[in-house]
Amino acid sequence: MVHGCVSRVGVCQDVYRAAGRRIAVAYRLGRGRYGTVQAMTDPDTPPRRKSPRHARRVAREPRRPTPAGPAPDRAALRAAALAHVARFATTIAGMERMLGRVLQRWGRRAEAEGMEPSLVTQHIAAAAPDIAAVIADMQALGAVDDARFSESRARSLTRAGRSRRAVGAHLQARGVAASVVAQAMEETLGTRGEGAHETELAAALVFVRKRRAGPFISPDCTDDEATMRDRRAMEAMARSGFSRDIACRALGMDAQEAEERIWRMKSA
Q1: Span of 30-44, 104-118, 254-268 with lowest mean pLDDT
Q2: Exposure on the CB side of residue 261, measured as CA atoms within 13 A
Q3: How far apart are alpha carbons 268 and 259 in whole angstroms?
Q4: What whole-number distance in Å separates Cα of residue 241 and Cα of residue 46?
Q5: Least confidently predicted of 47-61, 201-215, 221-235, 241-255
Q6: What is the pLDDT of residue 220?
Q7: Where are the alpha helices (DSSP H) in the chain?
Q8: Degrees to nearest 5, angle at CA 118 with 114 and 121
Q9: Measured between alpha carbons, how far is 12 from 107 in angstroms, rounded to an integer?
Q10: How far apart are CA 165 and CA 237, in angstroms?
Q11: pTM here?
């Protein structure tokens, strides 16, 4: 008899533990999105609706194309130019390309709406003098200046580890005249002499530091790994426009001296 009572007590304890677990789970879920404790325990309670953020997302309708509107005039082109220079530094050639894209974008929209391609071409050709006038306005305001752009970009690229040749190629690719590029590089990087050599060496040190080679190699590297890193850095510096003499000096320099040279270049 005692044995039967003990067994029944054990069964009751197991039942209560299971019931307690179910109630605890229902309580936790009741705080979320699955319903209250009453909904979990009472089968007659209607289920709670799920939150809208968990409902199935309705497919979005395709975006309607922007209407072409009238052909861009001088005022519209000037507004586009002001919006562009408010966000980006640009050159005369860059501004001309941007305004040309504005006209081409309008032309595609106008053709999509049914305008004759010949008429679109006429409108775009008629707006060409307006582009020149807007660029002249931007130059008068000082918002577009190839010389100032070249000086600023040459300084920032050199501090980022670009060689003199890479800086010149970058500026010419942006449409700056070769004479303006040469003058800007002489004023910012120095003439081809001792000053320009030191600036080029500091830029090479920045390049080497990014590659974790030369004086900036990790002390945990083995000799073979250090040699491989230096060789790869030498090849990359050759592709980036650094001379062999500059590359050898940068890779063989002391770490403290290298950091001091980089600091002097960036603080100048």
Answers
A1: 30-44
A2: 24
A3: 14
A4: 75
A5: 47-61
A6: 87
A7: 2-30, 37-41, 74-85, 92-112, 117-126, 128-141, 146-159, 164-173, 178-189, 194-211, 223-239, 244-251, 255-267
A8: 100
A9: 82
A10: 11
A11: 0.69
